[in-house]
Amino acid sequence: MKSLILKTASEYLLPLLLLFSVFILMRGHYEPGGGFVGGLIASIALVLHFFANGEEKTRKFLHIHPGIFIPIGLSLSLVSGFLPLFIGSPFMTGLWIPDPFPVIGMVGTALFFDIGVYFVVVGVTLTIIFTIAESV
Question: Nearest CA to 66 among 121, 115, 123, 21?
Answer without folding.
Answer: 123
